[in-house]
Amino acid sequence: MSTSFTQRQLRDAFGEFATGVTVITGVRPDGEPVGITANSFSSVSLEPPLLLWCLSNNSSGAVAFGPGAAFAVHVLSHEQREMAVHFARRSADKFEVDQHWRANPHPPHIEGALCRFDCRVHSVHPGGDHLIVIGEVLALKRTPGSPLAFYAGHFGTYSMDRGLPKIDVWDGANDGWF
C-alpha cells in the first residue's frame, strides 16, 4: 500500500468509488439561484431525516448554504448527463441558458430528476478544502427511471444484477448490529 501519493493519485483513487450524480440548487441571499453538480452525496440518518453533501470552500455558491437555508438535491437520471455537465461548469449564467428549472418555489427545481429532496441546512462543518453540508429532509419526490452513474471520471449507467434479491440495508437498523 502506498503511503506517499500526489493529489492526482488521490483523486483517481477516490474515483474508483462509483457514485450517482446530483445537482444541488439553492438561492444566494441576493436572490440569485445557485446550481452545483455533486457526487459527494450520502444519507446520514432516518430519524431525524438527514443527508449530506460536500462543497468546495472556494465555491462562489457557498453563501447560499448557510444554516437554515433552503436547498434541493436532485438525483439525476441517466438521460440528464448534459444537465450534470452544465451545472459542473464554473459559470454565473447556469440558469439563464437552461430552461429545465422553475424559479418558483425557491430553490429552483430541476425537472426529470429521479428523486428530489427538499431540505433545510441543518449544519455546516469544515472538512479540509470542502464544507460538509448536513441537510434536514423536509419533503421528497420520486420518479421512475435509471440513474446517472459516475466512475473513474466518466458518466455511465447502472446495471442491476437481477439474479440477486433486493437488500434493504435499513431493515434491522435498530437491532444494534451495526
Task: Find the CATH topology.
Answer: Pnp Oxidase, Chain A
Work out the count of structural domains. Answer: 1
Q: Main beta sheet: strand number and arrangement?
A: 7 strands, antiparallel
How confident is the prediction overall: mean pLDDT? 88
CATH homologous group name: Electron Transport, Fmn-binding Protein, Chain A
What string gives the helices and strands in order? Answer: HEEEEEEHEEEEEE
Structural class by secondary-structure content: mainly beta
> Shape, please?
globular
What percentage of residues falls in helices of 4 or more residues? Answer: under 10%
- Unreliable stretches (pLDDT < 50, length at least 5) are none
Strand content: 35-45%
Strand arrangement across the biggest beta sheet: 3-2-6-9-10-5-4
Per DSSP, the total helix count is 2
End-to-end C-alpha gap:
28 Å
Account of the protein in words:
The protein has 178 residues and is mainly beta. The chain has one domain: Pnp Oxidase, Chain A, CATH 2.30.110. It contains two helices and twelve strands; from the N terminus they run αββββββαββββββ. The radius of gyration is 17 Å and the shape is globular. The model has no long low-confidence stretch (mean pLDDT 88).
List keywords for this structure.
12 strands, three-stranded antiparallel β-sheet, mainly beta, 2 helices, single chain, Pnp Oxidase, Chain A, globular
Topology (elements, then pairings):
Layout (H helix, E strand, L loop, with lengths): L6 H8 L4 E2 L1 E6 L5 E6 L2 E5 L4 E7 L13 E6 L5 H8 L12 E2 L6 E2 L4 E13 L2 E13 L6 E3 L2 E3 L22
Antiparallel strand pairs: 1-11, 2-3, 2-6, 4-5, 5-10, 6-9, 7-8, 9-10, 11-12
